[in-house]
Amino acid sequence: MSLDPIGEQIEYRSQRGEAKFKGSYQPISGPYFAQSGTLEHWLTERYCLYARDPRGQLWRNEVHHAPWPLQRAEADIRLNTMLAPHGLTVSGPPLLHFARQVDVVVWSGERC
Predict the structure, then answer these.
(1) 11: containing domain
(2) Where are the alpha helices (DSSP H) in the chain?
(3) Which of 9, 11, 78, 95 could form an SS bridge with 26, CB 3.0 to 4.6 Å?
(4) Number of structural domains in the chain
(5) CA–CA distance from 82 to each of 18, 51, 68 (Å)?
(6) 61 close to 71: Cβ distance less than 8 angstroms
């Protein structure tokens, strides 16, 4: 993966095997905080991180952060084959948000 900031725009590239993504995105509104009970709030206010280690064991980490200062965003997606290896496709308009930065504290992981 690589991210290259160009002014307000972020150029993003990712490749894992045959799965590739190339595109750019940028904010198109001022910052705001998602309201409780909205899809935006549910998507961004996550306080656990799950990941598999190289041996396939699932781990869970507690995460703490302030609310994300979201901005509405637009994207120019030039290549997206990320879901194809799994037999999945993307349909409908994208739901896009941009956040400049939030400091995060992550606690040590525990096996699930």
Answers:
(1) 2-111
(2) 39-44
(3) 9
(4) 1
(5) 8, 18, 26
(6) no
pLDDT in tens, 69-100: 999 999 999 999 999 988 998 888 888 999 98
pLDDT value at residue 46: 84
Task: Assign 25 a pLDDT band (cuts: 50, 70, 90).
Answer: very high
Q: Which DSSP state fits 40? A: H
25 C-beta neighbours (distance < 10 Å), count: 19
CA–CA gap between residue 85 and residue 97 (Å, rounded): 26
The sheet carrying 97-99 orders its strands as: 2-6, 9-16, 19-27, 70-80, 97-99
Residue type, 63: V
